[in-house]
Amino acid sequence: MSASPTKAEGPHEEDVQSPDNEEKDTDQQNMYEFEVKEQDRWLPIANVARIMKTALPDNAKIAKEAKECMQECVSEFISFITSEASEKCQQEKRKTVNGEDILFAMTSLGFENYAEALKIYLAKYRETLSRGGDTRSAPSGSAAAAGQGTYPDAYGHIGNGVSGAESY
Question: What is the pLDDT of residues 20-32, one digit of tens each?
């Protein structure tokens, strides 16, 4: 058996990294230091369930499977819209996604009916802010606090913000 020629010990050409490659490898390592679980990208299930309950009669029950399905769907939907809006911001060299970007993304992705309803909602929201109103709860003495309609719902209907209180 003949001995094959031995290679000189030391770094091999393929083992030596150029400074450029080293920087790229470090960036890639830093980018993937932690693993994001799919479930961590979803909205909290308690929040999703609470919103679902507002659309149903008080005595209605929601199966765990239905909550989980809705959790995944709405999270993906939000991610889909936000990704499109973010792309628009990057093209315009902006870092902040605003309401108009979301509306533009919804329209360009084929959700123009929702975009129109949200455009109305955004205008009302900004109007409330400009008057110094609290957007979390209706100011005392206001039409909303008295149960009169002032806020558009997800369908563009004006109501008092309490789901199920209006009849359509």
Answer: 555 555 555 555 5
Domain range for residue 132? 114-162
158 three-class SS: strand
Three-class SS state of 159: strand
Q: Are residues 129 and 95 in the same domain?
A: no
Q: What is the DSSP letter of 151?
A: E
Q: Which residue reads 């110094």 in tokens?
A: 132
List Cα–Cα distances, 66 to 15, 45, 63, 89, in angstroms.
53, 11, 5, 34
Distance, CA of 89 to CA of 98 (rounded, Å): 9
One domain for residues 106 and 53? yes
Asked whether residue 106 falls in the same domain as residue 124, the answer is no
To 5 degrees, how large is the angle CA 106–CA 96–CA 33? 100
- Same domain? For 100 and 68 the reply is yes
Whether the model pTM is above 0.90: no
Task: List all residues 6 or more positions away from 49 whose beta carbon is below 8 Å from its beta carbon.
Answer: 62, 67
